[in-house]
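ingest -> validate -> predict -> emit
validate: passed (alphabet ok, no gaps, 433 aa)
predict: started
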Amino acid sequence: MWQPARLSSSVCTAKPTPVPQRQTGNGASSFPRPICSSWLTARPPSPSAPWTVPAIRSAAATQSACLSTRCPAPRSTRCFGDGVLNAVEAGSTQTLGGTTGLTTPGQTVTVTLGGTEHAATVTPTGSWSVTLPPSALQTLPEGSAPLSIVVKDAAGNQSTLTQTITVDRTPPTLSLGNLATDNILNQSEVLTAQNLTGNASTAEAGRTVTVTFNGKSYSGTVGADGQWSVALSAADLGALSDGTYTLSATLSDAAGNSSTVTRTITVDASAQHAPRITLGNVAFDNIIDGAEIQSSQTLSGTTLNVEAGQTVTLTFNGKPYSAIVQSNGTWSTTIPLLDMSQLVNGTQTLSATVSDTSGNTASASQPITINTNTSVLAIAAITGDNRLNAQEAADGITISGSSSNIAAGASITVLLNGKAYSAIVQANGNDPR
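emit:
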């Protein structure tokens, strides 16, 4: 016995094929067998018999009759979590899913994205899922992209769900300035807080820049002008050991794309590695006598923990001099005769300062006595620099000097390498050989 079913008002979107109405003798409306079902009445006694529904006295009588009581009603979870496809997500396989709205067998789901169709897997409970490979995601243009989900049941009824996703794979702009001017933290710089600054696109205003240094994180906010800054505390910097560290700054945009910039930071702040400088004696005993004041004098000394090529800055009698640190740590320069002739009896301070490449400084000073009243001899620098090269040795050299309070014609003996050489004091006090 066929039992009448409850009339359904669900409208199928895929096949709304109208069926002409005709009246039967008992006042009921009769339809041929339908193609798509939107209405359901008493089941006919046989497949070839007409379907009969009670008379419908309204425009709704032109709606198509359907074979099923429900049409597909596709639903999907939010694509990529937020409806936005970023660079990281586009670089890996993504899964989209949802439900069909039906639990009948034989359903299919087709997902179309970027003009490419992808067949989904449908479970008996109506859940569906589809995997999208990176090759399908990375070719999508930036901006909006339509996504359609078509569900079709075994009877051929289908429904389409259309969505729009946003494709944003462009990372934010981020720049990072130097720390402590040169990315080197020296003894004085680790004792005070250091500001680290940078820039980002103004579109990222209000977003957070995270700086990581020595295992600690610091946060700054991008301003309306795109600038940002963070402060590294003196307590954190003072706890650093000498060595190299990696500093990184990271910024993420609203889509989840991130940019990271790194710097290598050198810490050179321990007392163990601090530079040192020593001053050699001037005129052998730090006393410039009447003879020594008549010739140029050499200033020299040594350094420790100072790189070759660094400059030693000296001051004597109010005048500056400079010397270059050699590979063995030594340095030297000359006070010319003109400057020596301007000295007067008394005491002057000779001071020297040098810095290593990290900016750590060392200094030293010592008093120099000028006394021109004693009777003494002075030897001028041999070959100009007290260095004898092969050519000078082959050509022979002249040793000369000056004297003070010694009579002209006096004999002077010069000893060099165990050999004695004689010279005569001239009327001007010189004693050439």
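Residues 355 and 361 are 4 Å apart (CA to CA).
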